[in-house]
Amino acid sequence: MRIAVLIKQVPATDKVKMDEKTGTMIRSEMESELNPLDMYAVEEAVRIKERLGKKVYITVISMGPSQAVEAIKDAISMGCDDGYLLSDRQFAGADTFATAYTLSAAIRKIRRFELVFTGERATDGETGQVGPSVAAQLDIPVVTYVSCVEKITDDTIRVQRLIEGGHETIEVSLPALLSVVKEINEPRIPNLAGKMKAKSTTVLTLTADQIGVSLDKTGLSGSPTRVVKMFYPKLSRDGRIVKARDVDTVVDELIEFMRKRKLI
Amino acid sequence: MLDITEYKGVWTLGEVRDEKISPISYELLAWGRKLANALNVDLASVIMGKDVKNELNKLVHFGADVVYVVEHPKLEHFLPDVHARILEALVKEFRPEIFIASATTYGRTVMPILSAKLKTGLTADCTELNVDTQEKLLLQTRPAIGGNVMATIKTPLHRPQMATVRPKGKKPMKPNMTRTGKIIFKEYSEKMYESKYKWLSFERDKTSDLPIQEADVIIAGGKGIKDGKNFSMLYDLANIFGGSVGASRSAVDMGWIPYSHQVGLSGKTVSPRLYIAAGISGAVQHVAGMSSSETVVAINTDPDAPIFKVADFGIVGNALEILPVLLKKLSESKE
Ligand SMILES: Cc1cc2nc3c(=O)[nH]c(=O)nc-3n(C[C@H](O)[C@H](O)[C@H](O)COP(=O)(O)OP(=O)(O)OC[C@H]3O[C@@H](n4cnc5c(N)ncnc54)[C@H](O)[C@@H]3O)c2cc1C
Ligand SMILES: Nc1ncnc2c1ncn2[C@@H]1O[C@H](COP(=O)(O)O)[C@@H](O)[C@H]1O
């Protein structure tokens, strides 16, 4: 069985700090990391490999700038087998549709995969659209919000989805794409052997030419959407902060506050 | 090249849950009405299900001019390929210029599939939608990077212009029982209902009747709540408000409450009218999921806790002492 895991490199969230005065985000040192929510996708693929044995082979695929090799290597150090970086100037400025177009074209080019994993969403763009869009462009079924892989056979997979109000169990034919949520597992910390393997593995880079995509369908020119404006909202609220010297009084004040705002 | 002038009207994607039209569908009509009025076009709602006949007029009362209905036993559960295939057929036949859905697990699954099939754009999780009246284009505003950046996006040359909007972003309009509208039933061949999915079962989450994304009020607890048992206090409070219980990742990681309640970067993004954060420090990853709440109340023993920066009302004090008193006073005033 061949598994592909789609991962993205994103700005490291724990490096994000709030500007005390403006209440906006400071991202001075733009450090990057493997999208934290993609680690669950990588881990699940590796667990399937461990469960089914050696006949499973996991390929990591990412579209991004050359530094994204680091994120691919992080995934390999967790137990994936090889990696591809889709990198080309033409890919810049892609929205989710154009990203998914390029990813699905590359998947087709690389080989047939029985399973494709993605994270629930990337912590920068936060759309969660790339997975379902890749599946639609590959014309394979997608199962989103997967919280448990129950059973895999040669041509089907049974999973649970975490949806509003509970868990749904669903079976789908393979090949299929699964986007997973945090509940599914606890990602491992790579061990020394894993790190050594990642170091010695060469990540192959594919350009637009090599994938064979038409340039007008990738990057900004292939994107149906356009960003027309960006702004930074003020997150801090300058609210009233009171010390609870006397619990009774402070609760009365809170109730009064909520009444005024018509919350009770 | 697509002739965009052939596309007219605003559509919303209704949702059926537990065999009923979900309130989300009425929220969407409030979003759609504003856009349809600005463009001076009809507002339509699409609804798919096994048996939804009884409630269709409600969609009209809540603002729809037209309702497209597709009924079939195979539509009882969400089979993504079937839903997307039918929506694709409807869009190709009736050509709306705008199509919006809710950013629920349903909308966030079926809309990207549909937009890929239609080769058009889709903007996720919008908190604001407007019409550029000059260009007659949909302006879609959404947060990114944990709410730290807002972007306004448009889809100039592709149709329909598609977006999902955050649940609870708007209240449904007051229903008008005298409104009339057109109800159009569509039927498709059995082939349209063939699916690669087999729906097996649904297990309800015992800890939540109301998913946090759809709650008006969220009482959230963090590590400062000290023990899973103490969460019963939060549930009692949530009950008084008719709301839900949320949690920080630390509380979830301690096993005090299931992951479906987690708010934040690796959990859910919520925008309730009231968010009470008790014993939550307010790490950027948590704030990412709740900063768009209308009113935030924070209770924390540490006066320097970052949660106070995003609070409208903050209490420096012990949540385990304050919450029981709040609970007592609120239940007394209810009686
Ligand atoms: C990639 C990534 C993703 C993450 N995603 C999320 C996410 O989705 N959601 C999330 O919440 N976190 C997330 N985190 C974790 C986040 O960084 C914080 O660690 C977490 O939010 C802290 O939870 P907490 O506030 O409950 O605990 P703590 O930070 O330990 O804070 C507990 C607070 O309770 C206060 N306190 C203690 N006792 C009392 C008392 N008796 N009464 C009142 N207050 C009291 C303390 O002063 C303290 O401020 C993520 C982290 C990373 C790296
Ligand atoms: N540039 C990319 N390269 C590879 N995978 C991606 C890329 N962008 C998004 N993905 C995958 O799609 C998921 C959803 O991303 P998004 O739709 O951007 O929130 C991520 O968790 C990744 O698994």
Verbal overview:
The complex is a heterodimer of chains A (264) and B (335). By secondary structure, chain A is α/β, with parallel strands linked by helices. Chain A has helices at 38-52, 69-77, 96-110, 130-138, 192-200, 208-211, 247-260, and strands at residues 2-6, 9-11, 17-18, 25-26, 32-34, 57-63, 82-86, 115-119, 142-152, 156-163, 166-173, 176-180, 204-206, 226-231, 240-243. Chain A has one domain (2-217): HUPs (Rossmann fold, 3-Layer(aba) Sandwich). In chain A, α2 crosses α5 and α3 (96-110) crosses α4. The N and C termini of chain A lie far apart (57 Å). Chain B is α/β, with parallel strands linked by helices and 335 residues long. Chain B has 2 domains: 4-193, Rossmann fold; 212-334, Rossmann fold. The interface between A and B is large, with 85 and 96 residues. The structure holds flavin-adenine dinucleotide and adenosine monophosphate (AMP). Adenosine monophosphate (AMP) binds next to α1, β6, α3, β8 and α4 of chain A.
Note the main attributes of this structure:
heterodimer, A: 264 residues, alpha/beta, Rossmann fold, 9-stranded mixed beta sheet, two-stranded antiparallel ribbon, 7 helices, 28% helix, 29% strand, globular, B: 335 residues, 7-stranded parallel beta sheet, 5-stranded parallel beta sheet, 18 strands, 27% helix, binds flavin-adenine dinucleotide, binds adenosine monophosphate
What is the topology?
The complex is a heterodimer of chains A (264) and B (335).
Chain A: E1 2-6, E2 9-11, E3 17-18, E4 25-26, E5 32-34, H1 38-52, E6 57-63, H2 69-77, E7 82-86, H3 96-110, E8 115-119, H4 130-138, E9 142-152, E10 156-163, E11 166-173, E12 176-180, H5 192-200, E13 204-206, H6 208-211, E14 226-231, E15 240-243, H7 247-260
Parallel strand pairs in A: 1-6, 1-8, 6-7, 7-13, 8-12, 9-12
Antiparallel strand pairs in A: 2-5, 3-4, 9-10, 10-11
Chain B: E1 10-13, E2 16-17, E3 20-21, H1 23-39, E4 43-49, H2 56-61, E5 66-71, H3 80-94, E6 98-102, H4 107-118, E7 122-126, E8 128-132, E9 137-144, E10 149-154, E11 161-165, E12 182-186, E13 197-204, E14 217-221, H5 231-241, E15 244-247, H6 249-253, E16 274-278, H7 284-290, E17 295-300, E18 313-316, H8 319-334
Helix pairs in contact in B: 3-4, 5-8
Bound molecules: flavin-adenine dinucleotide and adenosine monophosphate (AMP).
Adenosine monophosphate (AMP) is lined by residues 6-8, 35, 37-38, 41, 62-64, 96, 99, 103, 118-119, 121-122, 125-131 of chain A.
